Amino acid sequence: MSIIKYIEDNHKKNRPLSLTLFERLQEDILSNNLKTGDKLTESKLCKEYNVSRTPLREALRQLESDGLIETIPNRGAFVAGLSPQDVSDLTELRNQAEISAVRWAIERITEKEREELDETFEFMQFYTHKNDIPKMLNINKAFHKVIYNATHNKMLIKSLNEYQLYLSYTNPSNYYEPNYLREVLYEHREIYNAFLSHDKDAGEAAMRYHMTNSMKRKFR
Amino acid sequence: MSIIKYIEDNHKKNRPLSLTLFERLQEDILSNNLKTGDKLTESKLCKEYNVSRTPLREALRQLESDGLIETIPNRGAFVAGLSPQDVSDLTELRNQAEISAVRWAIERITEKEREELDETFEFMQFYTHKNDIPKMLNINKAFHKVIYNATHNKMLIKSLNEYQLYLSYTNPSNYYEPNYLREVLYEHREIYNAFLSHDKDAGEAAMRYHMTNSMKRKFR
DNA sequence: TCAGCACAAATTGTATACAATCTTATCGTA
DNA sequence: TACGATAAGATTGTATACAATTTGTGCTGA
After folding, report:
1. Cβ contact B71 with chain D strand, < 7 A
2. Residues A204, A197: Cα–Cα separation, whole Å
3. Domain coordinates in residue numbering, chain A
4. CA of B75 to C1' of C21 (A)
């Protein structure tokens, strides 16, 4: 049964525990459930998540690489969350990176990726007219992710995904202001048009405008 | 015996095996000793390095986070080294990041860090006059690292250190050209002066100039 | 009182054992 | 011959056991 096999392959639950633990701890740190300075005692976490130390320690190593914890040999792991300063820095870094990314992406985007961008933008229009804000939040992220991947720049993609994830836990925009969706759609259309006309300068300008306004929307 | 204790504490060999393995494998991948696509079979690596699988797997998780390997669950880890395209992209990213960094650093540098920069630049002058190229390579890296840290931007520091490390394995500059050291010293002096005058625009311009010339020196 | 030591408990680091999954080789059948 | 089923071997995933180190505690003696 190829169908069943297919479904099994995609839904299969043989994801390593270390990955699940990594995501769980990442979530707990970014959501400030675990706070900066907290000691992460392996045995306690093992009991909490009901796993052995082997996959847990692997998850800790990944968190360490991402800078979300700091470990001192033979002493243990300590949470290193994001301070308000970190968030502010991260925001600025993200803005710069997004602006760079749009130039790279316009230069390197493939036909298939362009179609993906088309599709994503159409969804964006659709859900804007539906006024479906939760859906829009996802589509918004997806739109930017398409751009990230279109840069075909491995390191930049990794950074941008990290920035997007980390910042998604910080104070959200004022989604429910009356013009929110219309403004956002307009700004994305400008970016989208730059891809259609293959105009890097226009793309940079549009992204810069979008980033500026995103910041404003957060704090107005 | 406080002295002995001190020396022990610093030279102590109780660094986790996972860290040693991580550095070793990182080196092997960046130096292209392990090539893109190579399968990393745990048991083989264990035999090669004479360790058990536990610390080895922890090292693999860190390499994975850094994007130097890719692991497929239940299938194993595969080397994902840097293609020429990656190196080119990385170079451009590094250049942009260095330019951003110098602005941040000039704004945020502490007195202590300024002194460190003074000292490093003095060493730079000293070894330029001595014409000691190997020493200069180290001082050069150190000078930039002082700037990285002076940004006090956690993420940016992490990225820049990664860029510097990764690119240090790529084709080196033509160090032994007659004017190499003098040119490099001049360019760093311009950057250094911008710190003294606390002039971000001058700093950006100087770093931009330095980056441009660094590229030229690589390929002339 | 308290510095300093010794020992016990807790915690991290590493090795090994076992379980689950994937790969490969073999064989039989159409 | 080509193909698929199947079982053996190899490899990865997880749990447990043991070793090394750190941390906590109580005692001693100046």
Report:
1. yes
2. 13
3. 2-79, 84-219
4. 9
The radius of gyration of chain A from alpha carbons, rounded to an integer in Å, stands at 20
User: A180 to each of A185, B57, B148, B212, how far by Cα in Å?
Assistant: 9, 47, 38, 42
Smallest CA–C1' separation from B74: which nucleotide? D12
d(CA A96, CA A92): 6
The CATH number of domain B84-219, selected from 1.10.3720.10, 1.20.120.530, 3.40.50.150, 3.30.930.10: 1.20.120.530
Helix (H) or strand (E) holding B188: helix B180-196
* Topology of the domain covering A2-79: Arc Repressor Mutant, subunit A (1.10.10)
Say yes or no for a CB contact (<8 Å) between B61 and A62. yes
Q: Which tens digits make up the pLDDT trace of A92-151? A: 999 999 999 999 999 999 999 999 999 999 999 999 999 998 999 999 999 999 999 999
CA A22 – C1' D16 distance (Å)? 22
Q: Which of A19, A58, A155 sits opposite B57 (nearest CB)?
A: A58
Does this model's pTM top 0.70? My answer is yes
Q: What per-residue string of b and e applies to B158-196 under the rule 16 or more CB within 10 Å gives b?
A: ebbebbbebbebeeebeeeeeebbebbbebbebbbebbe
On strand C, nucleotides with any atom < 7 Å from a protein CB are 11-17, 20-23
Q: Which nucleotide is nearest to B41 (CA to C1')?
A: D11
| Mean pLDDT on B60-65 | 98
pLDDT (0 to 100) of residue A13: 62
Strand D: which nucleotides have any atom within 7 A of a protein Cβ?
11-17, 20-23
A98 vs A92: CA distance, rounded Å? 10
Question: Cβ of B108 under 8 Å from any chain A Cβ?
Answer: no
Which nucleotide's C1' sits nearest to the alpha carbon of B39?
D11
Strand D close to A17 by CB, under 7 A: yes
- Residue B174 pLDDT level (bands cut at 50, 70, 90): confident
A14/B155 CB distance under 8 A: no
Cβ atoms of A59 and A25 within 8 Å: the answer is yes
Diameter of chain A by CA atoms? Answer: 57
Nearest CA in chain B to A66: B65
